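Forwarding the complex inputs:
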Amino acid sequence: MKYPLTLKVNGETYRLEVKPHRSLLEVLRDELDLTGTNDGCRTGNCGACTVLLDGAPIPSCLMLALDAEGHEITTIEALSAGGELHPLQRAFVQRGAIQCGYCTPGMILSAYALLRENPHPTEAEVRRALVGNLCRCTGYVKIIEAVLAAAEEMASAEVGSR
Amino acid sequence: MRTFSIIGKRIPKPDAIPKATGQIIYGHDVKVPRMLYGKILRSPLPHARILHIDTSRAERLPGVKAVITAKDLPPRRFGYGRDRTPLKGDKVRRCGDEVAAVAAIDEDIAEEALELIRVEYDPLPAVFDPQAALQPGAPLIHEDRQSNLFRHQEYVHGEPDRALEEADVIVEDEFDLGYVQPAPLETSFCLAAFDASGKLTIWSTTQIPFLLQKDLSEALGIPGRDIRVIQTAIGGSFGRGLDMYSFEPICVWLARKAGRPVRLAFTRQEEFAVSEARQSMRIWARAGAMRDGRLWVRDAKVLLDNGAYVSWGTVTTLVLMETIGSLYRVPHARVVYDSVYTNNPITGAVRGFGNPQGTFVVEVQMDRLAEAIGMDPLEFRLRNANRPFEETPQGIKITTCGLTECLEEAARRIGWSEKRAAPARHGVIARGVGIAATMNVGGGARIYRSDGCGCIVKVDDFGRVTVLTGATEIGQGSDVVVVQIVAEELGIRPEEITIVNDDTAVTPWDVGVHASRTTFIAGNAALRAARQVKAQILETAEELLGASAAELELRDGYVRIRETPEQRIPFDKVVRARHFRQGGQVIIGHGWYDPHNEMLGPDGKGNISATYGFGAQAVEVEVDVETGKVRPLRVVSAHDVGRAINPMYVEGQIEGGTVMGLGYALSEHLQVHEGRVLNLTPFDYRMPTIMDAPPIETVIIETDDPEGPFGAKGVGEMGTNPTAAAVANAIYNAIGVRINSLPITPEKVLRALRERSS
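Prediction (whole assembly, two chains):
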């Protein structure tokens, strides 16, 4: 038995029919082909499936897709929608914060949410914001550097545009 | 001193942008038309005879397209020990053994079908302790073998018995090193599809695409020439993909039976329960030294738990032997090991491959010996450090060796002398520093008869260079290394190179990504191929510029005369001039590199690698004596990498390796009770989070290896090897207790403190 679902993802509205036990992760990946959201553990442990729900990072594997109706979902695909990398993406690329890349979309979205709330985070604040995103490759060093560098770049761009 | 335009630059990997934007395609993202979903029914028992399997209800479930059991498969065995079939027909030997498999139109139906399969088991007595498994009368895991002992080996150099009597001081310890999992973020994946002519394509997270062709062929009887392996982008591996696992031939057979493509991906729980773990080892070790500071002897007895089947994991003892026999100059050494079957999880390849265990033993005992002779542990290490261009009694021919510099730099930057002199103590918090070194193969490792890798470089009409490499990118950055080497040689920008690395039908052969070999081996193959292309381009440019090849150089996308650089022709124009004419030739270069290393002899001796990497880690820790909690404050990791082709990713290997080493030291532990893995999620397993990772300072020591591509040596595993020992030594420095069992949990710290005070 499938149920109708209206899902708003990256500014677009999708009308779908889904089984009630489908997670938001499964619907994003299987129905909408938004495969930038990665499937790592399906228990909310690893953060690879992080998306933004009304701007706040959540593990999409723990949310039923039907419960996402009425909310704005943002996935990694939205960040470079204009064809240009977001400063966070650029910093991750240029500073070697990406190895296998499986954690990267989730990391970047968690960091994106942080910088919206707190444009000048300390290192400790970056760590706290990314604690739900596991990375097995990098040892986190370059991820922290990339987030701090992106924050700085975004802040100076902000000043420049005034 | 050579100067480079591309080598040594911090250039992002070619796959970094697709990974940052979510565009990259991992195995889990691949879909093909008519694809089915496969699932495996696994044994809940560690040891049992299979009396009966009834799959009839599963077969009748609408949406199920194939159900297979052992009787459907050809009766062929596979694996390092040729001791298993993909599906088990007579008996199961571990929890998680594969008993039946289904393919269905979606995952829900596949899972429901598994629940409809009835298996009748007759439980057998099981054995979970390798020592007990060796006792007469222990349950036999493999009844066609006389005992549960898979292999006994002894390695000796010098005269260890005499040396143990001669030594002024002897230390003796028992080490208990637990299981850890590679646990990459992407779980194991396979998608198998047959075409109408019976040829198989599989999309895989393997690290060994070419050996996988062979392994699948042996397991299933499909000719290797009919198997094409496509590697998707791989979400981490760390050794996991070095073996073919049962799920791969199972997935292939489901596809064959269903006549449709089948995808089989592990759940995270399966990943923890049935992926091959780092070997649990029990090691009894003695080491001796002279009062004047000479390391004199090492003697170790190793009991390795293979689990129910033998995988490449059993070979890890060769690496451990090398660490015990050759890390530091030791005139007398002996390693005796038994690798034993039990009903525990299978153990396989994990980053470091026996070296973290061996290094833990060596480096804890180096500290203990230094203390016994009243010498500073750093000084004792420096005194006995391996030196450049020296052959060890094991037959290891060291060429470049920056071990002394690594030890000195790591110690200096952690503040060794000041901090050792006065370990800080504030209330319940004690601080300490520790150091440990590592030696790792850095120029390949001849585990198989070939240690080779192939490479093809071609150039199109517009000057775009395509590199076909056998090397496997598992996230570490092998692609960028190969690209930088080719770009440097051809004088072009890295962006002008397309790298293809993912298809056995296209790329030249390679033995696989393991043993920190890719930069060195695939790099040398790429360099050879690029040199051929360069020679062809220069030959044509000679005609066009009227100068001899010796007078020409490739630089900034031009071929130009070195002395009069304004006389130049664009690279792509030379390319066209060579083939776009009657009687022309196409530009194509190929390279094959197989180093001059040796397989180890039956005595465990031989020069297994063409060169060796060295490193030292110094760690400062904080121990809370009230809770037993250990917090690493800072790590300095200094490594002789020959030359850093790309320092950013050398740091990445070391930083990531170090945190994996910290996990091994302090938190990660696959808890196995009566053969069953209990912790099946990253939280329960205690995988390090960003809060657990301390600041890490990487120091790159360049020794310009004569055999390495532009002087480079391998670095992939070195970060992980010494960490646990450095942490254990720092804990001793902080609170004066030795913990020889990994991971060093708060419980163990508190117990050790209690035992000392009572």
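Chain B has a mean pLDDT of 97.
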